[in-house]
Amino acid sequence: MHILGITTETHDTGVAILRDGMPLVVYEEERFNREKHTKRFPQQALAAAFDGYGLKLSDIDVITVPWNMNSYRRTIGRILTRKLPHSLNLLWPEARKTTALGAANMPLRLKTALGRRYGFQNLPRLVQINHHNAHAAVFFVSPFEEATILIMDGYGDESATSAYAGKGNRIEKLWQDDFFDSLGMLYSCVTEHLGFKVFEEGTVMALAACGGPTYLDKFRDVVRLLDGGRIAINRDYIGYDTHGFMRPFAEKFVGLFGPARRREDPLTDHHRDLAFALQAVVEEAIIHIVRELSRRHPSRNLVLSGGVALNCVANARILRDTDYENVWVPPIASDSGVCLGSTLYYHHQTLGHRREYTMNHPFFGIQFTDDQIIEALNAAGLPYKRLSESDLLRTVAQDLAASRIVGWFQGRAEIGPRALGNRSILSDARSLKIKDLINARIKHREAFRPFAPAVLVEKVSEYFEFDQADPFMTMAPRLRPNKVDVIPAAAHVDGTGRLQTVERTANPRYYALIEQYAKLTGVPVVLNTSFNRQEPIVNTPKEAISCYLRTEMDVLVLGDFYITERPAQAMEKAQLAFAA
Protein backbone atom coordinates (compact mmCIF):
# COMPACT_ATOMS: atom_id res chain seq x y z
CA MET A 1 0.00 0.00 0.00
CA HIS A 2 1.30 3.46 -0.95
CA ILE A 3 0.14 6.52 0.98
CA LEU A 4 1.21 9.88 -0.44
CA GLY A 5 1.41 12.81 1.99
CA ILE A 6 1.44 16.30 0.50
CA THR A 7 2.00 19.65 2.22
CA THR A 8 0.93 22.60 0.10
CA GLU A 9 -0.72 26.04 0.43
CA THR A 10 1.58 26.79 3.39
CA HIS A 11 5.28 27.11 4.18
CA ASP A 12 7.69 24.15 3.93
CA THR A 13 5.81 22.33 1.22
CA GLY A 14 6.83 18.80 0.39
CA VAL A 15 5.85 15.19 -0.12
CA ALA A 16 6.26 11.87 1.66
CA ILE A 17 5.46 8.36 0.51
CA LEU A 18 4.73 5.59 3.00
CA ARG A 19 4.99 2.08 1.56
CA ASP A 20 3.38 -0.58 3.76
CA GLY A 21 4.14 1.48 6.84
CA MET A 22 7.76 2.24 5.91
CA PRO A 23 8.85 5.77 4.89
CA LEU A 24 10.06 5.58 1.30
CA VAL A 25 10.81 9.25 0.65
CA VAL A 26 10.44 12.59 2.39
CA TYR A 27 11.23 15.34 -0.10
CA GLU A 28 11.12 19.04 0.78
CA GLU A 29 10.31 21.27 -2.16
CA GLU A 30 12.81 23.94 -1.06
CA ARG A 31 15.65 21.52 -1.76
CA PHE A 32 14.51 21.35 -5.37
CA ASN A 33 13.31 24.89 -6.17
CA ARG A 34 16.02 26.51 -3.95
CA GLU A 35 13.54 28.80 -2.18
CA LYS A 36 13.75 28.58 1.61
CA HIS A 37 10.49 27.69 3.36
CA THR A 38 8.76 27.73 -0.01
CA LYS A 39 4.97 27.83 -0.24
CA ARG A 40 4.91 26.61 -3.83
CA PHE A 41 3.15 23.43 -4.85
CA PRO A 42 5.76 20.65 -4.44
CA GLN A 43 5.81 19.71 -8.10
CA GLN A 44 9.56 19.06 -8.32
CA ALA A 45 9.62 17.01 -5.12
CA LEU A 46 6.64 14.96 -6.30
CA ALA A 47 8.13 14.35 -9.75
CA ALA A 48 11.46 13.29 -8.21
CA ALA A 49 9.70 10.90 -5.83
CA PHE A 50 7.69 9.28 -8.61
CA ASP A 51 10.61 9.13 -11.07
CA GLY A 52 13.07 7.82 -8.49
CA TYR A 53 10.90 4.85 -7.56
CA GLY A 54 9.08 4.21 -10.83
CA LEU A 55 5.71 5.23 -9.40
CA LYS A 56 2.65 6.74 -11.01
CA LEU A 57 -0.30 8.45 -9.41
CA SER A 58 -2.29 5.30 -10.11
CA ASP A 59 0.07 3.46 -7.72
CA ILE A 60 -1.07 5.68 -4.86
CA ASP A 61 -3.90 4.29 -2.74
CA VAL A 62 -4.61 7.38 -0.62
CA ILE A 63 -3.40 10.99 -0.49
CA THR A 64 -3.20 12.60 2.95
CA VAL A 65 -2.82 16.29 3.76
CA PRO A 66 -1.81 17.64 7.20
CA TRP A 67 -4.67 20.09 7.64
CA ASN A 68 -8.34 19.56 8.36
CA MET A 69 -10.15 22.31 6.49
CA ASN A 70 -13.42 21.98 8.39
CA SER A 71 -11.55 22.57 11.66
CA TYR A 72 -9.55 25.35 10.05
CA ARG A 73 -12.66 27.16 8.81
CA ARG A 74 -14.29 26.92 12.23
CA THR A 75 -11.15 28.37 13.82
CA ILE A 76 -11.01 31.21 11.29
CA GLY A 77 -14.63 32.04 12.01
CA ARG A 78 -13.99 32.04 15.74
CA ILE A 79 -10.94 34.31 15.64
CA LEU A 80 -12.54 36.74 13.16
CA THR A 81 -15.65 37.23 15.29
CA ARG A 82 -13.87 37.33 18.62
CA LYS A 83 -12.69 40.95 18.49
CA LEU A 84 -14.76 42.62 15.78
CA PRO A 85 -14.14 44.88 13.97
CA HIS A 86 -10.36 44.87 14.64
CA SER A 87 -9.97 41.16 13.94
CA LEU A 88 -11.04 41.73 10.31
CA ASN A 89 -7.50 43.01 9.77
CA LEU A 90 -6.44 39.35 9.77
CA LEU A 91 -8.02 39.05 6.33
CA TRP A 92 -5.30 41.23 4.78
CA PRO A 93 -2.53 39.18 3.11
CA GLU A 94 0.09 41.31 4.90
CA ALA A 95 -1.19 39.99 8.23
CA ARG A 96 -0.04 36.44 7.47
CA LYS A 97 3.40 35.08 6.63
CA THR A 98 2.81 31.36 6.82
CA THR A 99 -0.50 29.65 6.15
CA ALA A 100 -2.90 31.79 4.10
CA LEU A 101 -6.56 32.07 5.00
CA GLY A 102 -7.18 31.03 1.40
CA ALA A 103 -5.76 27.62 2.28
CA ALA A 104 -9.28 26.75 3.39
CA ASN A 105 -9.82 25.83 -0.28
CA MET A 106 -6.65 23.75 -0.38
CA PRO A 107 -8.24 20.34 -1.14
CA LEU A 108 -9.89 21.63 -4.32
CA ARG A 109 -6.72 23.37 -5.50
CA LEU A 110 -4.64 20.29 -4.70
CA LYS A 111 -6.92 18.06 -6.76
CA THR A 112 -6.78 20.57 -9.59
CA ALA A 113 -2.97 20.73 -9.48
CA LEU A 114 -2.67 16.94 -9.49
CA GLY A 115 -5.29 16.56 -12.21
CA ARG A 116 -3.48 18.97 -14.53
CA ARG A 117 -0.22 17.09 -14.12
CA TYR A 118 -1.40 13.49 -13.98
CA GLY A 119 -4.95 13.50 -15.34
CA PHE A 120 -8.26 13.98 -13.58
CA GLN A 121 -9.44 10.41 -13.98
CA ASN A 122 -9.02 8.10 -11.03
CA LEU A 123 -7.43 10.59 -8.64
CA PRO A 124 -6.78 8.81 -5.32
CA ARG A 125 -8.99 9.56 -2.35
CA LEU A 126 -7.92 12.66 -0.41
CA VAL A 127 -7.95 12.44 3.39
CA GLN A 128 -7.52 15.50 5.61
CA ILE A 129 -5.63 15.01 8.88
CA ASN A 130 -5.78 17.51 11.73
CA HIS A 131 -2.51 19.45 11.77
CA HIS A 132 -1.49 18.58 15.32
CA ASN A 133 -2.54 14.96 14.77
CA ALA A 134 -0.05 14.89 11.89
CA HIS A 135 2.66 16.31 14.15
CA ALA A 136 1.81 13.89 16.95
CA ALA A 137 1.88 10.88 14.61
CA VAL A 138 5.70 10.97 14.54
CA PHE A 139 5.28 9.00 17.77
CA PHE A 140 4.63 6.00 15.55
CA VAL A 141 8.26 6.04 14.34
CA SER A 142 9.74 6.96 17.73
CA PRO A 143 11.75 4.43 19.75
CA PHE A 144 9.02 4.30 22.42
CA GLU A 145 6.20 1.81 22.86
CA GLU A 146 4.43 4.43 24.98
CA ALA A 147 5.06 8.14 25.52
CA THR A 148 3.56 11.51 26.28
CA ILE A 149 3.54 13.73 23.19
CA LEU A 150 3.75 17.53 23.31
CA ILE A 151 3.06 19.60 20.19
CA MET A 152 4.05 23.30 20.15
CA ASP A 153 4.07 25.39 16.99
CA GLY A 154 2.90 28.74 15.63
CA TYR A 155 -0.58 27.39 15.11
CA GLY A 156 -2.45 24.45 13.68
CA ASP A 157 -6.00 24.22 12.45
CA GLU A 158 -7.35 24.43 16.01
CA SER A 159 -4.62 25.43 18.47
CA ALA A 160 -0.94 26.15 18.99
CA THR A 161 -0.17 23.78 21.85
CA SER A 162 -1.61 20.33 22.48
CA ALA A 163 -0.73 17.19 24.38
CA TYR A 164 -1.31 13.53 23.56
CA ALA A 165 -0.74 10.11 25.04
CA GLY A 166 0.70 7.51 22.70
CA LYS A 167 0.72 3.75 23.13
CA GLY A 168 1.35 1.13 20.49
CA ASN A 169 -0.48 2.16 17.33
CA ARG A 170 -2.81 4.68 19.00
CA ILE A 171 -2.56 8.32 20.06
CA GLU A 172 -5.15 10.16 22.13
CA LYS A 173 -5.40 13.93 22.56
CA LEU A 174 -5.30 15.00 26.20
CA TRP A 175 -5.83 18.76 25.84
CA GLN A 176 -5.21 21.76 23.63
CA ASP A 177 -4.71 25.46 24.36
CA ASP A 178 -6.19 28.57 22.80
CA PHE A 179 -5.10 29.45 19.26
CA PHE A 180 -3.29 32.65 20.29
CA ASP A 181 -1.66 31.31 23.48
CA SER A 182 1.17 30.36 21.21
CA LEU A 183 4.83 30.28 22.18
CA GLY A 184 5.71 29.73 18.53
CA MET A 185 3.78 32.77 17.33
CA LEU A 186 5.26 34.92 20.11
CA TYR A 187 8.79 33.76 19.25
CA SER A 188 8.24 34.50 15.55
CA CYS A 189 6.87 37.97 16.22
CA VAL A 190 9.73 38.90 18.56
CA THR A 191 12.15 37.50 15.97
CA GLU A 192 10.78 39.97 13.44
CA HIS A 193 10.70 42.76 16.07
CA LEU A 194 14.44 42.16 16.50
CA GLY A 195 15.02 42.75 12.80
CA PHE A 196 15.23 39.15 11.62
CA LYS A 197 12.92 37.30 9.26
CA VAL A 198 10.24 34.86 10.27
CA PHE A 199 11.89 31.41 10.28
CA GLU A 200 15.11 32.94 11.67
CA GLU A 201 14.09 32.03 15.21
CA GLY A 202 17.23 29.91 15.52
CA THR A 203 19.30 33.06 15.07
CA VAL A 204 17.46 34.71 17.96
CA MET A 205 17.99 31.59 20.09
CA ALA A 206 21.73 31.93 19.45
CA LEU A 207 21.64 35.69 20.11
CA ALA A 208 19.92 35.09 23.46
CA ALA A 209 23.06 33.46 24.84
CA CYS A 210 24.88 36.78 24.34
CA GLY A 211 22.37 38.79 26.38
CA GLY A 212 21.54 39.43 30.00
CA PRO A 213 18.48 39.60 32.29
CA THR A 214 17.64 43.30 31.85
CA TYR A 215 14.09 42.60 30.65
CA LEU A 216 13.54 39.19 32.20
CA ASP A 217 11.12 40.14 34.97
CA LYS A 218 9.12 42.41 32.68
CA PHE A 219 8.87 39.73 30.00
CA ARG A 220 7.49 37.25 32.52
CA ASP A 221 4.30 39.33 32.46
CA VAL A 222 3.96 38.61 28.72
CA VAL A 223 3.77 34.84 29.23
CA ARG A 224 1.74 33.90 32.27
CA LEU A 225 2.06 30.47 33.87
CA LEU A 226 -1.33 29.14 34.92
CA ASP A 227 -2.41 26.32 37.18
CA GLY A 228 -2.56 22.88 35.66
CA GLY A 229 0.53 23.34 33.51
CA ARG A 230 -1.12 25.74 31.10
CA ILE A 231 0.04 29.15 29.86
CA ALA A 232 -1.57 32.36 28.59
CA ILE A 233 -0.10 35.09 26.42
CA ASN A 234 -1.04 38.43 27.99
CA ARG A 235 -3.24 40.16 25.44
CA ASP A 236 -2.20 43.58 26.83
CA TYR A 237 1.10 43.16 24.98
CA ILE A 238 0.19 41.59 21.65
CA GLY A 239 -1.61 42.72 18.52
CA TYR A 240 -1.25 39.64 16.38
CA ASP A 241 -4.62 38.32 17.57
CA THR A 242 -6.28 41.17 15.63
CA HIS A 243 -3.64 42.42 13.18
CA GLY A 244 -1.28 39.52 12.62
CA PHE A 245 2.17 40.56 11.42
CA MET A 246 0.93 43.99 10.33
CA ARG A 247 0.96 45.05 13.99
CA PRO A 248 2.11 42.14 16.13
CA PHE A 249 2.57 44.10 19.35
CA ALA A 250 0.52 46.58 21.34
CA GLU A 251 1.80 49.93 22.57
CA LYS A 252 2.52 48.44 26.00
CA PHE A 253 5.05 46.00 24.51
CA VAL A 254 6.80 48.70 22.50
CA GLY A 255 6.85 51.01 25.52
CA LEU A 256 8.57 48.41 27.69
CA PHE A 257 10.82 46.67 25.16
CA GLY A 258 11.49 49.36 22.59
CA PRO A 259 10.62 49.86 18.91
CA ALA A 260 11.26 47.28 16.23
CA ARG A 261 14.80 47.09 14.89
CA ARG A 262 15.35 47.52 11.18
CA ARG A 263 17.40 44.72 9.64
CA GLU A 264 20.21 47.09 8.67
CA ASP A 265 20.50 48.59 12.16
CA PRO A 266 23.36 47.40 14.40
CA LEU A 267 22.63 44.87 17.11
CA THR A 268 22.99 46.40 20.57
CA ASP A 269 22.88 45.15 24.15
CA HIS A 270 19.21 46.11 24.16
CA HIS A 271 18.46 43.62 21.39
CA ARG A 272 20.61 40.91 22.95
CA ASP A 273 18.87 41.38 26.29
CA LEU A 274 15.41 41.20 24.72
CA ALA A 275 16.41 37.96 22.98
CA PHE A 276 17.66 36.66 26.34
CA ALA A 277 14.34 37.48 28.01
CA LEU A 278 12.32 35.84 25.23
CA GLN A 279 14.35 32.63 25.30
CA ALA A 280 14.42 32.43 29.10
CA VAL A 281 10.67 32.95 29.50
CA VAL A 282 9.83 30.49 26.72
CA GLU A 283 12.05 27.92 28.43
CA GLU A 284 10.28 28.57 31.73
CA ALA A 285 6.90 28.13 30.04
CA ILE A 286 7.94 24.86 28.38
CA ILE A 287 9.31 23.48 31.64
CA HIS A 288 6.07 24.51 33.38
CA ILE A 289 3.99 22.62 30.80
CA VAL A 290 6.23 19.56 30.81
CA ARG A 291 6.38 19.21 34.59
CA GLU A 292 2.61 19.12 34.81
CA LEU A 293 2.42 16.59 31.98
CA SER A 294 4.92 14.46 33.86
CA ARG A 295 2.89 14.76 37.08
CA ARG A 296 -0.43 13.83 35.47
CA HIS A 297 0.69 11.06 33.10
CA PRO A 298 2.88 8.13 34.10
CA SER A 299 5.14 7.79 31.04
CA ARG A 300 8.82 8.66 31.48
CA ASN A 301 9.16 9.10 27.70
CA LEU A 302 8.42 12.38 25.95
CA VAL A 303 8.04 13.04 22.21
CA LEU A 304 8.26 16.68 21.09
CA SER A 305 7.10 18.00 17.74
CA GLY A 306 6.01 21.26 16.11
CA GLY A 307 8.26 24.18 15.23
CA VAL A 308 8.97 25.07 18.87
CA ALA A 309 10.57 21.63 19.23
CA LEU A 310 13.47 23.01 17.15
CA ASN A 311 14.45 25.03 20.24
CA CYS A 312 17.32 22.75 21.18
CA VAL A 313 18.29 24.77 24.27
CA ALA A 314 14.82 24.31 25.78
CA ASN A 315 14.81 20.63 24.82
CA ALA A 316 18.05 20.03 26.72
CA ARG A 317 16.57 21.75 29.77
CA ILE A 318 13.65 19.31 29.73
CA LEU A 319 16.05 16.43 30.22
CA ARG A 320 18.03 18.33 32.83
CA ASP A 321 15.20 19.92 34.83
CA THR A 322 12.27 17.49 34.68
CA ASP A 323 11.89 13.84 35.55
CA TYR A 324 11.44 12.62 31.98
CA GLU A 325 14.09 10.00 31.37
CA ASN A 326 13.99 9.99 27.58
CA VAL A 327 13.14 12.81 25.17
CA TRP A 328 12.86 12.20 21.42
CA VAL A 329 12.51 14.87 18.75
CA PRO A 330 12.29 13.85 15.08
CA PRO A 331 14.56 15.50 12.49
CA ILE A 332 11.43 16.97 10.87
CA ALA A 333 9.71 18.39 13.95
CA SER A 334 8.56 21.50 12.08
CA ASP A 335 6.11 21.59 9.18
CA SER A 336 8.68 19.97 6.91
CA GLY A 337 7.57 16.73 8.56
CA VAL A 338 3.79 16.89 8.61
CA CYS A 339 3.47 15.39 5.14
CA LEU A 340 5.03 12.23 6.61
CA GLY A 341 3.05 12.59 9.84
CA SER A 342 -0.23 12.64 7.95
CA THR A 343 0.63 9.33 6.25
CA LEU A 344 1.64 7.76 9.56
CA TYR A 345 -1.59 8.90 11.21
CA TYR A 346 -3.70 7.37 8.45
CA HIS A 347 -1.73 4.11 8.36
CA HIS A 348 -1.74 3.49 12.11
CA GLN A 349 -4.54 5.52 13.69
CA THR A 350 -7.12 5.22 10.92
CA LEU A 351 -6.32 1.81 9.45
CA GLY A 352 -5.05 0.28 12.69
CA HIS A 353 -1.84 -1.23 11.34
CA ARG A 354 0.83 -2.28 13.81
CA ARG A 355 4.06 -0.35 14.18
CA GLU A 356 7.03 -2.06 12.54
CA TYR A 357 9.49 0.77 11.93
CA THR A 358 11.67 3.04 14.11
CA MET A 359 13.29 6.15 12.67
CA ASN A 360 16.95 5.88 13.67
CA HIS A 361 18.37 7.87 10.78
CA PRO A 362 17.26 10.93 8.78
CA PHE A 363 18.28 9.86 5.28
CA PHE A 364 15.07 9.87 3.24
CA GLY A 365 16.07 12.52 0.70
CA ILE A 366 17.32 12.18 -2.85
CA GLN A 367 20.49 10.29 -3.82
CA PHE A 368 22.75 10.13 -6.88
CA THR A 369 24.79 7.50 -8.68
CA ASP A 370 28.52 7.68 -9.34
CA ASP A 371 27.78 8.27 -13.02
CA GLN A 372 25.63 11.29 -12.15
CA ILE A 373 28.40 12.67 -9.93
CA ILE A 374 31.00 12.20 -12.66
CA GLU A 375 28.71 13.90 -15.18
CA ALA A 376 28.34 16.93 -12.87
CA LEU A 377 32.10 17.13 -12.26
CA ASN A 378 32.89 16.94 -15.96
CA ALA A 379 30.25 19.55 -16.80
CA ALA A 380 31.84 21.92 -14.28
CA GLY A 381 35.36 21.21 -15.57
CA LEU A 382 36.61 20.01 -12.17
CA PRO A 383 39.57 17.61 -11.89
CA TYR A 384 38.96 14.86 -9.34
CA LYS A 385 40.40 11.71 -7.81
CA ARG A 386 38.37 8.59 -7.14
CA LEU A 387 39.57 7.00 -3.90
CA SER A 388 38.89 3.72 -2.16
CA GLU A 389 36.89 4.12 1.03
CA SER A 390 39.91 3.53 3.27
CA ASP A 391 42.02 6.08 1.35
CA LEU A 392 39.16 8.56 1.30
CA LEU A 393 38.54 8.37 5.03
CA ARG A 394 42.25 8.60 5.85
CA THR A 395 42.76 11.59 3.54
CA VAL A 396 39.71 13.53 4.71
CA ALA A 397 40.51 12.83 8.38
CA GLN A 398 43.97 14.30 7.76
CA ASP A 399 42.35 17.34 6.16
CA LEU A 400 40.10 17.85 9.18
CA ALA A 401 42.99 17.41 11.60
CA ALA A 402 44.85 20.10 9.64
CA SER A 403 41.87 22.47 10.08
CA ARG A 404 40.86 22.34 6.46
CA ILE A 405 37.21 22.98 5.59
CA VAL A 406 35.56 20.04 3.82
CA GLY A 407 32.32 19.94 1.86
CA TRP A 408 30.97 16.44 2.55
CA PHE A 409 28.27 15.09 0.18
CA GLN A 410 27.21 11.47 0.61
CA GLY A 411 24.32 9.11 -0.13
CA ARG A 412 20.72 10.14 0.48
CA ALA A 413 20.08 13.67 1.70
CA GLU A 414 19.00 14.11 5.29
CA ILE A 415 15.54 15.51 5.97
CA GLY A 416 14.73 18.54 8.09
CA PRO A 417 16.47 21.88 8.61
CA ARG A 418 19.81 20.59 9.93
CA ALA A 419 22.71 18.96 8.13
CA LEU A 420 23.29 15.57 9.73
CA GLY A 421 26.29 14.13 7.94
CA ASN A 422 25.34 13.66 4.29
CA ARG A 423 25.11 17.31 3.18
CA SER A 424 27.52 18.86 5.68
CA ILE A 425 30.50 21.17 5.86
CA LEU A 426 32.99 19.62 8.28
CA SER A 427 36.08 20.92 10.01
CA ASP A 428 38.29 20.78 13.10
CA ALA A 429 36.41 21.27 16.38
CA ARG A 430 39.73 21.89 18.20
CA SER A 431 40.43 25.15 16.36
CA LEU A 432 38.75 28.26 17.75
CA LYS A 433 39.64 30.28 14.66
CA ILE A 434 37.80 27.86 12.37
CA LYS A 435 34.40 29.39 13.26
CA ASP A 436 35.51 32.79 11.97
CA LEU A 437 37.10 31.20 8.91
CA ILE A 438 33.93 29.33 7.96
CA ASN A 439 31.87 32.49 8.43
CA ALA A 440 34.28 34.66 6.46
CA ARG A 441 35.01 32.22 3.65
CA ILE A 442 31.71 30.37 3.25
CA LYS A 443 28.65 31.10 5.38
CA HIS A 444 28.70 34.93 5.68
CA ARG A 445 26.31 34.86 8.62
CA GLU A 446 26.22 36.41 12.09
CA ALA A 447 29.37 35.69 14.10
CA PHE A 448 27.39 34.79 17.24
CA ARG A 449 25.72 31.80 15.62
CA PRO A 450 27.29 28.50 16.71
CA PHE A 451 28.32 25.46 14.74
CA ALA A 452 27.46 21.93 15.78
CA PRO A 453 29.68 19.25 17.31
CA ALA A 454 29.23 15.79 15.79
CA VAL A 455 30.39 13.22 18.35
CA LEU A 456 30.68 9.44 18.35
CA VAL A 457 27.72 8.25 20.40
CA GLU A 458 29.86 6.22 22.79
CA LYS A 459 31.79 9.37 23.76
CA VAL A 460 28.92 11.81 24.25
CA SER A 461 28.90 11.76 28.06
CA GLU A 462 32.68 12.22 28.12
CA TYR A 463 32.31 15.62 26.41
CA PHE A 464 28.80 16.75 27.39
CA GLU A 465 26.64 16.81 30.52
CA PHE A 466 24.32 14.51 28.63
CA ASP A 467 23.94 10.76 28.35
CA GLN A 468 21.43 9.91 25.63
CA ALA A 469 21.70 9.60 21.86
CA ASP A 470 20.60 12.60 19.80
CA PRO A 471 21.21 11.74 16.14
CA PHE A 472 19.03 14.61 14.85
CA MET A 473 20.73 17.61 16.52
CA THR A 474 17.74 18.52 18.67
CA MET A 475 19.45 19.21 22.02
CA ALA A 476 22.03 21.76 23.16
CA PRO A 477 23.39 20.46 26.47
CA ARG A 478 26.33 21.93 28.33
CA LEU A 479 29.85 20.85 27.54
CA ARG A 480 31.80 19.49 30.45
CA PRO A 481 33.99 22.35 31.76
CA ASN A 482 37.21 20.45 31.09
CA LYS A 483 36.24 19.93 27.43
CA VAL A 484 35.42 23.50 26.39
CA ASP A 485 39.06 24.22 25.61
CA VAL A 486 39.43 20.87 23.84
CA ILE A 487 36.70 21.61 21.28
CA PRO A 488 36.32 25.41 21.48
CA ALA A 489 34.91 25.73 17.95
CA ALA A 490 31.93 23.61 19.01
CA ALA A 491 31.17 25.56 22.20
CA HIS A 492 28.61 28.36 22.15
CA VAL A 493 29.20 31.46 24.27
CA ASP A 494 27.03 30.01 27.07
CA GLY A 495 29.00 26.76 27.19
CA THR A 496 26.41 24.68 25.33
CA GLY A 497 26.74 22.79 22.08
CA ARG A 498 23.97 21.73 19.66
CA LEU A 499 25.34 18.26 19.34
CA GLN A 500 24.73 15.39 16.97
CA THR A 501 25.51 11.89 18.15
CA VAL A 502 26.72 9.59 15.37
CA GLU A 503 26.13 5.83 15.42
CA ARG A 504 27.94 3.34 13.23
CA THR A 505 24.77 1.52 12.21
CA ALA A 506 22.96 4.72 11.17
CA ASN A 507 25.74 6.25 9.05
CA PRO A 508 28.78 3.94 8.75
CA ARG A 509 30.92 6.24 6.59
CA TYR A 510 30.32 9.37 8.69
CA TYR A 511 31.07 7.38 11.86
CA ALA A 512 34.25 5.95 10.35
CA LEU A 513 35.43 9.42 9.32
CA ILE A 514 35.06 10.80 12.85
CA GLU A 515 36.72 7.64 14.16
CA GLN A 516 39.71 8.21 11.86
CA TYR A 517 39.89 11.85 12.95
CA ALA A 518 39.86 10.70 16.59
CA LYS A 519 42.80 8.37 15.93
CA LEU A 520 44.81 11.33 14.61
CA THR A 521 43.77 13.89 17.22
CA GLY A 522 42.51 12.00 20.25
CA VAL A 523 39.20 13.91 19.91
CA PRO A 524 36.06 12.05 18.71
CA VAL A 525 34.25 15.29 17.78
CA VAL A 526 34.22 17.16 14.46
CA LEU A 527 32.61 20.47 13.61
CA ASN A 528 29.49 20.21 11.44
CA THR A 529 27.42 22.87 9.71
CA SER A 530 25.02 22.78 6.79
CA PHE A 531 26.41 22.56 3.26
CA ASN A 532 25.13 25.85 1.85
CA ARG A 533 25.79 29.54 1.59
CA GLN A 534 22.66 31.56 2.45
CA GLU A 535 20.46 29.13 0.52
CA PRO A 536 18.72 25.81 1.23
CA ILE A 537 21.06 22.92 1.98
CA VAL A 538 22.57 21.61 -1.26
CA ASN A 539 20.61 18.74 -2.75
CA THR A 540 22.47 17.69 -5.90
CA PRO A 541 26.10 17.22 -6.98
CA LYS A 542 25.72 20.27 -9.23
CA GLU A 543 24.64 22.44 -6.28
CA ALA A 544 27.46 21.10 -4.09
CA ILE A 545 29.98 21.90 -6.83
CA SER A 546 28.50 25.37 -7.24
CA CYS A 547 28.77 26.08 -3.51
CA TYR A 548 32.36 24.79 -3.47
CA LEU A 549 33.33 27.03 -6.39
CA ARG A 550 31.56 30.11 -5.00
CA THR A 551 33.19 29.83 -1.58
CA GLU A 552 36.62 29.14 -0.16
CA MET A 553 36.21 25.69 1.30
CA ASP A 554 39.38 23.66 0.92
CA VAL A 555 38.07 20.26 -0.11
CA LEU A 556 34.98 18.86 -1.80
CA VAL A 557 34.02 15.20 -1.38
CA LEU A 558 31.19 13.78 -3.50
CA GLY A 559 30.73 10.12 -2.65
CA ASP A 560 34.12 8.55 -3.41
CA PHE A 561 35.32 11.55 -5.42
CA TYR A 562 37.89 13.92 -3.89
CA ILE A 563 38.35 17.44 -5.25
CA THR A 564 40.75 20.20 -4.23
CA GLU A 565 41.33 22.18 -7.44
CA ARG A 566 39.44 25.27 -8.64
CA PRO A 567 40.05 26.12 -12.29
CA ALA A 568 39.38 29.82 -12.86
CA GLN A 569 37.00 29.09 -15.72
CA ALA A 570 34.92 26.76 -13.53
CA MET A 571 34.71 29.38 -10.76
CA GLU A 572 33.56 32.08 -13.16
CA LYS A 573 30.97 29.76 -14.68
CA ALA A 574 29.59 28.85 -11.25
CA GLN A 575 29.29 32.50 -10.18
CA LEU A 576 27.43 33.44 -13.36
CA ALA A 577 25.08 30.45 -13.14
CA PHE A 578 24.21 31.18 -9.51
CA ALA A 579 23.60 34.86 -10.22
CA ALA A 580 21.25 33.92 -13.06
UniProtKB/TrEMBL annotation:
Alphabetically ordered keywords of this record: Transferase
Domain Carbamoyltransferase C-terminal intervals: 397-564
GO MF: transferase activity
Domain of life: Bacteria
Pfam families the UniProt entry points to: Carbam_trans_C, Carbam_trans_N
Domain (Carbamoyltransferase) ranges: 2-342
Gene3D superfamilies for this protein: 3.30.420.40, Carbamoyltransferase, C-terminal domain (3.90.870.20)
InterPro entries: ATPase_NBD (IPR043129), Carbam_trans_C (IPR031730), Carbam_trans_C_sf (IPR038152), Carbtransf_dom (IPR003696), NodU/CmcH_Carbamoyltrnsfr (IPR051338)
Similarity field: Belongs to the NodU/CmcH family.
Protein name in the entry: Carbamoyltransferase
